Amino acid sequence: MDVMEDKIQPHQYIKFKKEGIKIVMVTAYDSIQARIADGVGVHGILVGDSLGMVIMGYSSTLPVTLNDILHHLKAVLSVRPKPLVVADMPFLSYEVSRAEAVRNAGRLVKAGADAVKVEGGVDIVDKVEAMVKAGIPVMGHIGLNPQRYLILGGYKLRGKRAEDALLVYEDAKALEEVGVFSIVIEFTAADVAKHITDSVSVPTICIGSGPYCDGQILVFHDIVGLNPSPPLFVKKYANVYEVMVNALMGFKDDVQKGLYPTPQHYKLMKDSEYDKFVKMIKKRQGN
Ligand code: KIV
Hints:
Elements: H1 10-19, E1 23-27, H2 31-40, E2 44-47, H3 51-54, H4 66-77, E3 84-88, H5 98-110, E4 115-119, H6 125-133, E5 138-143, H7 149-152, H8 162-177, E6 182-186, H9 190-199, E7 204-207, E8 215-218, H10 220-224, H11 240-257, H12 271-284
Helix pairs in contact: 5-6, 8-9
């Protein structure tokens, strides 16, 4: 098998934690985003089910299918990225049985993913254990689980109260025990995320859970300013939405004012060929 020398592997994440290297991850759903993430040198790319919201415009991640993830995974893998490529397992692709979890995770790994990510803790550890035993690296995802927003009562901060913080902590410990190589902690009180980070041997990757984790992840569209309503924990580093609107406005204006296309944007035949062409048409018309 062709293995890239500098390709980041799941086990290196644990080394990063030991060495105090802050892990940087970003989502990507197409080849351009993957090329940018690769070029910047992040440690991981997540083909997240957030694609349901930022690409498909759904109001939640629930409608996303395994085939949707496979489709976008193919686009990301086309640039042979060096960062670890993690594929999200969509809602109901791993919760039902151990066999189904292994089969579906297997499809993602066979397609080229380096690892899969699943939402949940104590409730799904038997499925996570089965995947790990089958040789599939698994990243956990605890705290706010968007796939469970219906039973969580919305996209609410986790760990505000001690009882809830304990549940999130127990999820982390259960996942660690069955062999995940890292854990995403989403929108959880920062002191709870810190406590968990200090209590587990695998790296924690935060999204909206403060600075004390071993790494951070954000959604590509949120970082570059392509999401008109990003979550409150997002820091926007550019306003690409505005850049795109201005570009399209410019195109529309130019076309309407006759300023596009201009000679550098098109080609003409040679005069002699054009004359020949006109004669051929005339002949065809019987003139
Ligand atoms: O799908 C996604 O983008 C995610 C991140 C929020 C971690 O799961």
